């Protein structure tokens, strides 16, 4: 077991860490709610605000030098490469921002789970289908709160497994060993995971 290998429990810890930071903020960064409000102010509709946010995330990955800039302020809960953690944080903050714009409560555990589901991109609808949840009506704000804990657990587990596979396929996990953390690497990593797909998935999930 190498320091950088991802297990389900590590993945869960990093997801929780990234979500907490996306909702409560990291020093010098906007929270998901602040980001949502600033985009809503600048755009004439929620849809336009969301599209604008996704474009911005695509363009910059909004991550270049992100973790490097924060330096020692970030203590990761588990030993995984910082680039993976930063990608997780940035993607989760984007999805949480979209959920907030659509009126979902980021403090709900169910909403948190669906934010994680969006990270899997195109696999999201399959994961939900296997858990017996249909996208669309089932995810209306009231209905989402009624999804049983067991189902939420099953979805979280499926998401964890899927993300480990995804990061593993991309070979991203090994990057953390030898390569210094520079903007280009994080940018490349984010692009590799398909920010656009994840943004579109979040629009569908939090419809």
Description:
There is one protein chain. The protein is mostly helical. Helix content is 68%, strand content 0%. Helix 1 packs across helix 9 and helix 2 crosses helix 5. It is globular, with a radius of gyration of 16 Å. The termini are far apart.
- Low confidence ranges: 172-192
From the N-terminal CA to the C-terminal CA, the straight-line distance is 41 Å
**Count of helices?**
12
Number of strands: 0
In short, what is this structure?
The protein is mostly helical and 207 residues long. The protein has helices at residues 8-24, 32-42, 46-60, 66-70, 82-101, 109-118, 124-130, 141-145, 149-169, 172-178, 183-193, 195-205.
Q: What's the structural blueprint in terms of helices and strands?
A:
Layout: H1 8-24, H2 32-42, H3 46-60, H4 66-70, H5 82-101, H6 109-118, H7 124-130, H8 141-145, H9 149-169, H10 172-178, H11 183-193, H12 195-205
Helix pairs in contact: 1-5, 1-9, 2-3, 2-5, 3-5, 3-12, 5-6, 5-11, 5-12, 6-9, 11-12
Supply database-style keywords.
single chain; 207 residues; mainly alpha; 0% strand
């Amino acid at each position: 077991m190498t320091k950088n290998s991802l297990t389900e429990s590590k993945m869960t810890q990093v997801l929780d860490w990234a979500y907490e930071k996306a909702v409560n903020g990291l020093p010098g960064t906007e929270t998901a709610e602040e980001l949502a409000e600033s985009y809503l102010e600048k755009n004439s509709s929620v849809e336009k605000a969301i599209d604008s946010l996704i474009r911005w995330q695509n363009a910059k990955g909004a991550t270049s030098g992100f973790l490097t800039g924060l330096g020692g302020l970030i203590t990761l809960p588990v030993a995984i490469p910082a680039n993976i953690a930063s990608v997780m944080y940035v993607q989760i903050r984007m999805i949480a921002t979209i959920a907030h714009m659509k009126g979902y409560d980021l403090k709900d555990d169910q909403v948190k789970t669906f934010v994680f589901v969006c990270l899997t991109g195109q696999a999201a609808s399959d994961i939900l289908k296997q858990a017996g949840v249909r996208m669309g009506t089932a995810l209306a704000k009231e209905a989402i709160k009624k999804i049983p804990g067991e189902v939420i657990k099953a979805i979280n587990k499926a998401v964890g497994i899927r993300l480990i596979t995804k990061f593993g396929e991309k070979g991203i996990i090994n990057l953390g060993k030898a390569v210094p953390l520079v903007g280009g690497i994080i940018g490349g990593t984010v692009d590799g995971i398909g920010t656009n797909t994840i943004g579109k998935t979040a629009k569908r999930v939090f419809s």
